[in-house]
């Protein structure tokens, strides 16, 4: 029987928190063990890039590290094109999309 893999959407603010604090060991373990599959949308990736380019956050992110991270999205995640996966103000749509795609965990802050 195939191992169950949970689909997970992580909010941009939480990604940034993980990356700044480098406190993503448990998440990293689950990703590498392939017990979760990260779900991204182009909108969420775009939001992430906009947020990390803000002056107060820019100091924490080297452009080479950001490029490596974006490359990892393809390896460990799935990029969806649905407009239903949007950000913050439209969290309800994320929840509806998550349910429709049988995504069991939605991580946000």
Structural overview:
This protein is an alpha/beta fold. The protein has one domain: Rossmann fold (3-Layer(aba) Sandwich), CATH 3.40.50.1010. It contains six helices and four strands; from the N terminus they run βααβαααβαβ. A four-stranded parallel β-sheet has the order 3-2-1-4. Helix 1 packs across helix 3. It is globular and about 45 Å long. About 6% of the residues have low confidence.
Q: Can you give me a brief rundown of this structure?
A:
With 109 residues, the protein is of the alpha/beta class. It has six helices and four strands.
Key phrases:
109 residues; alpha/beta; Rossmann fold; 4-stranded parallel beta sheet; 6 helices; globular
Helix segment count? Answer: 6
Strand content: 15-25%
**Whole-number mean pLDDT:** 76
Form type: globular
Q: Count of DSSP E strands?
A: 4
Largest β-sheet summary: 4 strands, parallel
In the predicted model, the low-confidence regions spanning at least 5 consecutive residues are 84-89
Secondary structure: helix percent: 40-55%
Q: How many angstroms does the end-to-end distance come to?
A: 35 Å
CATH superfamily descriptor: 5'-nuclease
Please identify, by name, the CATH architecture: 3-Layer(aba) Sandwich
Give me the strand/helix succession.
EHHEHHHEHE
